[in-house]
TrEMBL record:
Residues 364-404 form the MYND-type domain. This is MM3350-like domain-containing protein. It holds the Pfam family zf-MYND. It comes from the Eukaryota. GO terms for molecular function: zinc ion binding. Signal peptide: none annotated. InterPro entries: MM3350-like_sf, Plasmid_pRiA4b_Orf3-like, Znf_MYND. Keywords: Metal-binding, Zinc, Zinc-finger. It comes from Suillus subaureus.
Amino acid sequence: MDLAKLFSTLSLAGEDIPPRSTTRPAGKPKFVKFLPGDNGEGMPETFFEDPRTFNPKPGPHGQIQTWGIFPVCALPTNPSESVTLTFDGIQMMYRTVSLWHTNSQYDNRGGKPWPEKQFMDVLKDRKREQLSKLDLAGLDKKDIVIKIRLKVRNLHCYTFTDLRDGAVFGPEVGYDYLPDDKYMLAHLFSEVGDTFGHLYDYGDKWYHEIEIEKIFLLEESYGRVQILDGKGMCPGENMRGSYRYQDFLKAYDTDSYTEQVKKRREILDCPNYKGFGKPPSLFDIDAFDIDQANERLVAALSSPNSVRAGMKAFTMPINPSAQDSRIGKLKKGQSIQREWDYESHGYWQETTSSTKDKRSQSACAACGKPGGQDLKTCSGCRAILYCSAEHQKVHWKDVHKKQCSRKYLEK
Ligand SMILES: [Zn+2]
Ligand SMILES: [Zn+2]
């Protein structure tokens, strides 16, 4: 098989595909084991080290990302620079594809795992051990002021990164994430000034840095989740990531009126603005409406957790039989929401659940206070929880009256 040709066929923009490199790191790996036929060609040199003593490496700008193995996603010091990629993803793809055609049949699900996974498993065990011994000193109960920017949920993959060692938390899809539903944000920092990373969407790459600005004493903490301030409208979902969007905004300031309207239209055409419902002339890129932001936060808090296996996706069916591929695998209480977009010849589909979230993963629908066993269930729908009778009353009047129904009742 002509791999170079394969990759150029797969490449999206016709960018130059580097040739396959036949070099491999010198020497023998200190820990990982290869199957016959594999000599580590195309594997990053880090995997030749010993994961039991491995020290994560900071990227070019001092932050530790992706377990300190691939210092990818290094943030440029000057926003006009592009993101520095210091590992060679193409060589790793050559490696994966060329090994499909040899006797080296690695199998991460029950067989002999890939050397990369052998290495990661040790790093993950080390981190798990460290996390299990961690004294959070009430950090999970204290109110924290953070600087953050978040976007629509459950449409793309996401991760959280502990920038102290590059440990990555996320939905357990790859072999290098710790499951994020088993840990709390409090596991990612210890004091004011600490930052951790949030990456949303592996295609476009929206980077967020979340900085701890203030930690309240336990006695002063009351657990409410609230937006204190913000700036500007959310970028459009498909606008190719943080850095391109920054350039987009910079140009916007000096654009002609016609150009600005064109740009506003581009944002409003994105999926997360589907419900905006106003013409581009009424869209102000710089506006921030704190009340509206908090309203959306409350709506998110009182909605059930996303169903991981049913993330929101857009489908353009080629033939009608393609439409029902996922029906039949639903769990109790789950249903498929589908919304046709006739203009785009396809539909949005998401699996949602009407069953109550696990107590360990739920919060007061009114204020967002995580309460575990202390939360009381709404007796109408039994789907949402409250921290107090007072919050239930307020939430009923403002929001829940229209949602609550016995039809959601779980039997
Ligand atoms: Zn509450
Ligand atoms: Zn209810």
